[in-house]
Amino acid sequence: RLPEMWKRRPVVIISYKNTLHGPCLVIPTSTDNENAANPWAHKLSIEFEGDGVASWAICNHPATVSPSRFLQFNQGMVWLPESDFNEVLSKLLKWLPKPF
Predict the structure, then answer these.
(1) Stated pTM of the model
(2) pLDDT at 52
(3) Residue spans per domain, the chain
């Protein structure tokens, strides 16, 4: 059986002060069209590979990873538009438990 995070995929990095030192919180992305019905997925306005394939940020699957695991895609690091980032962050915060 393959490990949970076995294949390479783009992620949205949720980084305090835009640093990539120490553990980083990431939101995985997917090109699976079934995510259109997922209330925790946000359709991104950008294409990672420039191939016309839509991507969704899966906001209820955050993970903490070491920056040493990051690889850059063909065009290097891609910055999300502010509106996409804010929506991803909003869905992540809604998914997290609230204090009692």
Answers:
(1) 0.85
(2) 85
(3) 11-95
